[in-house]
Design a protein that fits this description.
This protein has 220 residues and is α/β, with parallel strands linked by helices. Helices cover 41% and strands 17% of the residues. It is built from 10 helices and 7 strands. A 7-stranded mixed β-sheet has the order 1-3-2-4-5-6-7, sandwiched between helices. It starts with a strand and ends with a helix. 38% of the residues are buried.
Length: 220
């Protein structure tokens, strides 16, 4: 799959695009430019990946089972192919993920499912109620993909101990339509003793790139 890399060294950060975005979206929306100083200083290295959302969550006419299976194939690509590739080319053994809107969902889902491989996650305006795209379809695989479904029932110390050593940031805006979902997820995490930074931005902050450019400069 296609991807773009910005930076030679520093903390590797996998960047997920929005719902129908591509691997070049982060650059096109001036998000890479907003981080140019830190990239040039070798503090961070961005790995902007493509997605298969159009073949999974947004696959028109596809059965729900296929949509979930395609998403899990994508997750395996990220974790089993891309992550080892990153670690072979970057001496920093830590790994972070981030994304806006639907990219925030990918970030938090993979980070909470694999806390041994992903050490930090930043979601900006994250859209976490993605089951609605499957029109009533539900299964165990879907359950374990949705943080707001599996997290309240999670008691395994293997996961909880690792969560408590990782970093999680949920940022949303006062006028973001997904504010409630972000607040709910933050509360679920806190109920599990998981340290999470949850910020609601004022100043008429909504669900769009101008605000996300300000957020990314604050948190990364």
């Amino acid at each position: 799959m296609e991807h773009l890399v910005f930076g030679q060294d520093g903390l590797p950060v996998i960047v997920f695009p929005t719902s129908r975005g591509r691997f070049y979206e982060f650059e096109d929306q001036a998000m890479v430019g907003a981080l140019e100083t830190k990239i040039n200083r070798g503090q961070i290295q961005l790995w902007c990946v493509d997605s298969v959302n159009h073949e999974s969550w947004f696959a028109e006419g596809a059965e729900g089972s296929w949509c979930v299976a395609r998403h899990l194939q994508y997750e395996h690509y990220i974790l089993d192919e891309l992550v080892p590739y990153i670690h072979r080319r970057n001496r920093n053994k830590m790994l972070a993920v981030m994304g806006c809107s639907f990219g925030g969902f990918h970030s938090m889902s993979m980070a909470l499912r694999h806390p041994d491989k992903i050490n930090a996650a930043l979601s900006m305006g994250g859209a976490f109620d993605v089951a609605r795209f499957l029109h009533g379809y539900y299964c165990d695989d879907l359950y374990f993909t949705l943080p707001m479904d599996f997290l309240p029932n999670l008691h395994d110390p293997w996961y909880l101990d690792r969560y408590r050593h990782n970093t999680y940031i949920l940022a949303t805006g006062h006028h973001d339509q997904y504010w409630n979902d972000n607040e709910r997820l933050a509360e679920m995490m806190r109920n599990k003793g998981v340290p999470v930074r949850f910020d609601v931005w004022g100043d008429n902050t909504g669900h769009d790139w101008p605000w996300w450019r300000r957020m990314v400069q604050t948190y990364v």
